[in-house]
Amino acid sequence: MAQRPFIVGNWKMHGTRAMLSEARAIDRAAQRLMKVEVAIAPPFTLIHAVHREAEQIGVGAQDCHHAEGGAHTGDISAAMCADAGAKFVILGHSERRGDHGESDACVKQKADVALAAGLRVILCCGESLDVREKGKAVKFVTDQLRASLPHIEDAAEQLTIAYEPIWAIGTGKTATPQDVSDMHVAIRALLVELYGEEQGSEVRILYGGSVKAENARELMDADEVGGALVGGASLTADSFMGIAIAAAEVFEG
Ligand code: 13P
């Protein structure tokens, strides 16, 4: 595997300044694990503070607005995230799609705006339990991606996909390694179709949904998995770095 595994913590709506000590602990541990690219996406209110503390880890945002700027009370633009120290933004998370009614077209617009502002994009996709039980997960996810993916031109390293089955998020349930392989192989085929062999092969595909140190090895070992997007287990340095260590072992072979 040419690229380092990418292990990203999505802190969601958790974290006040009291959590900065945890970010520092993650950063210190990441300095001893250079084989893994470690990053966290704290809430907007902590981006700048984490950015100032971090020597090794990447810092990102969990969303940005689809417009470059303007009269949008309470919203945050991609350029503002970058100005605060974010290097990437998570877009199209199922909690955003669900809580805020974000459509594929809206996610695509956000991704284009974020890339133009110099942010890397982690674009999320994933099916509901109902869709999976009907046997339509691969078609649903590839259709969702087809409609949400940005133009990347020659900058595949700016884009990462995160496959997060909705029914696995925060539930303790994970997809089986075989289901993860099947989905990631289908996503890879789509990326190659849309962006060409060279660019499409370079985009990393993360798995997300109840990843923990205990299940990380088998999930990271599935085909076309380039890392993990971690929610609950990213809130403490111990549990988060346990996942990063597992990823390092798998990717070292
Ligand atoms: P959990 O790891 O808590 O299941 O959350 C996954 C997720 O939604 C990351 O974006």
SSE layout and pairings?
Blueprint (H helix, E strand, L loop, with lengths): L5 E5 L9 H12 L5 E5 L2 H10 L4 E4 L16 H7 L3 E4 L2 H7 L3 H13 L3 E6 L3 H5 L3 H12 L10 E5 L13 H19 L1 H6 L1 E5 L4 H8 L6 E4 L6 H16 L1
Parallel strand pairs: 1-2, 1-8, 2-3, 3-4, 4-5, 5-6, 6-7, 7-8
Helix pairs in contact: 1-2, 1-11, 5-7, 7-8, 10-11
This protein binds 1,3-dihydroxyacetonephosphate.
The site of 1,3-dihydroxyacetonephosphate has 14 residues, from strand 8.
Which stretches of 5+ consecutive residues score pLDDT under 50? none
Major β-sheet profile = 8 strands, parallel, barrel
Strand content: 15-25%
CATH class: Alpha Beta
Percent range of helical residues: 40-55%
Distance between the termini: 9 Å
Radius of gyration: 17 Å
Shape: globular
CATH superfamily: Aldolase class I
Secondary structure class reads alpha/beta
Architecture (CATH level 2) name? Alpha-Beta Barrel
Describe the structure.
The chain is of the alpha/beta class. The protein has a single domain (6-252), classed as Aldolase class I (TIM Barrel). The chain is built from 11 helices and 8 strands. An 8-stranded parallel beta barrel has the order 1-2-3-4-5-6-7-8, surrounded by 8 helices. Helix 1 packs across helix 2, helix 1 packs parallel to helix 11 and helix 5 crosses helix 7 (137-148). The radius of gyration is 17 Å and the shape is globular. The protein starts with 5 loop residues before the first strand and ends with a helix. 1,3-dihydroxyacetonephosphate (13P) binds at residues 10, 93, 164, 169-170, 208-211, 229-233. 1,3-dihydroxyacetonephosphate binds next to strand 8.
